[in-house]
User: Fold this.
Amino acid sequence: MILHVDIETRSRVDIGNGLDVYVQCQDIEILVVAWAFGDGPVQTWDIHDGDRPAELIAALRDPSVKKLAWNARFEQALFARCWDVHVPDEEWIDPMVVVLTLGLPGSLKDAGVALGLPEESLKNTDGSRLIRKFCVPREPTAKKPYEWSTRETDPTDWVRFRHYCEQDVIAERSIWHIVAPYDLDPGEWALWALDHRINARGLAIDLDLVRGAIALDEREKARSRADLNTLTGLPNGGAVTQLLPWLR
Assistant:
């Protein structure tokens, strides 16, 4: 069985800082989830709906279900961080990876256009505006004294926001139907999973050595500044405005 899934989230941390930093935000939340089993109907849950969808969580935890998501690392990290649902690397398939191996654009919207998908299967172009509205905090004003836009503050756009998430599932599934015959070999997916584990593990750092190097650096800077002041007779020989006239 194949599970197509997409999520929308909110956080005070800019995603531009990287996924690892983004997911560490204390108040990060999953706002909307859209999913479909195979070619079945797209289902949607949002944070206002109450209990998390048991059917979806069961599928995520089922090792016999292949999970497909565009840029799957995002969904994998957020389900683990927000819902405590940890899906192993080997259970994910990322259509974006397959698309990139074919020399096609890596964005969901551009890949759909390049593959000639019909309008109803393309990514919703209103998504950037909706993400800015619901996924990042706003500056409260006298008329709108709240930090987050929600279903209560913007009901019409919230419906569009849910539809945007649903449309991402439709677009990703439509692209997968086209590129699936060119899927990577199991060995390549194993390397993809290994690459993720290597990056997630990171590098071991000798913190005592780092602290010692910082302390040594500060000590040597102070000594050098003192030597420069003695040599030049300046109050602050490291200041360009003082040093340049002395050099001249």
